[in-house]
């Protein structure tokens, strides 16, 4: 029986038109079946033993391929964040292309192509991107753009770096009565000596105020009641006082001995302005003439300057003694050279820009070639002149009559006294001529303005018969100590050189 069974198997194998029953299952059959029972369903019942034997010999899976390689879903089994490197790419591009030469012919096309590439790659124009932004407000980011970086530097001032402004009191430090003061715009009735003594003329008398002690001393009075004092001027040392009067004379007084040294006559009309240059005293009168007096000699009148056609109401020598500035009721400003024997009396400069009487004149202490002048009611302008070039540096309409000007070196400012219509004192920042402060209090026009020897206080006299002392320029104690140290050091060096 076994022989017949073997022959039947050989016979079935040799028959090619019959299906192969012991071959491995097809792939579609393996996927359709879920168990061994499904795998056996494709075989005939009589060949179950051979089918099991064939299935055991041929594995259903490839050896070594037990793990599934291809994922069943797109994306992966864990989240990996996308890191934005756009800004780093832009920064690298800017650094690498910064110093490359630009072709003039292709500059337009290159800029357009760079913009197009930037818009397509980065989403914004490359020209709007900056590595560091140091000035002003930060640029606005594109809409929807998120940047975790913070601005490290800004231009805004921190509270510690804000410069502190000094306090300027709106009320005077002292108020003094000045009875019988002549309310005349053209007169110069106030002057402050280097020894801190204030001289004021009240009608035909002169009084002295010791600003340190506060004592008031009567100095002199004119013999005739109808005569009056027109001008005052201290010498540089502060020991002698020149007094111009309405009877065409100039008196020279030794203040500390209360003695009149001499009386000089040369003018034909009242003497309304005086200014010292060492031993030479210059005087201006209503006749329009300016006289130079050498007080050391008997024949004191040494020179006459002719240029003004009306009263010379303003007269100031420059700090270095090179030039004499004069202003008159003829609206003219003249600059005269230093007195020298054998030279002609020709002015160095002459300006006619003012439309009113020029009484207010002031030389800049830290710029000897700078002169400030102020016009009367019809002009009301402050003008800054450069004597070397002859040009007007700046001009400002104050909207009020200007009676006096003075430079305050402690804060590099210019102070102006005004008559109609404001009757006040204004402090201006130099050279910008921006308004710093206003000093109000006088009830009539301010006639004269003078600075103290330490440059911390300004004195004003007005038609309301009052003298007011304004402490508006006191220096910071720290800055003052530094200046004293510098002065002492320079003094020691000077002594060692001697």
UniProtKB/TrEMBL annotation:
Residues 33-44 have a biased composition (Low complexity). GO terms for biological process: anaphase-promoting complex-dependent catabolic process; positive regulation of anaphase-promoting complex-dependent catabolic process. Residues 176-470 form the CDC20/Fizzy WD40 domain. One of its GO terms (cellular component) is anaphase-promoting complex. Gene3D superfamilies: YVTN repeat-like/Quinoprotein amine dehydrogenase. GO terms for molecular function: anaphase-promoting complex binding; ubiquitin ligase activator activity. It holds the Pfam family WD40_CDC20-Fz. InterPro entries: Cdc20/Fizzy, Quinoprotein_ADH-like_sf, WD40/YVTN_repeat-like_dom_sf, WD40_CDC20-Fz, WD40_repeat_CS, WD40_rpt. The keyword Flavoprotein does not apply. Keywords: Repeat, WD repeat. The keyword Repeat applies. WD repeats lie at residues 222-263, 305-336, 376-395, 439-471. Residues 33-82 are annotated as: Disordered. Residues 47-63 have a biased composition (Polar residues). Belongs to the WD repeat CDC20/Fizzy family. This is CDC20/Fizzy WD40 domain-containing protein.
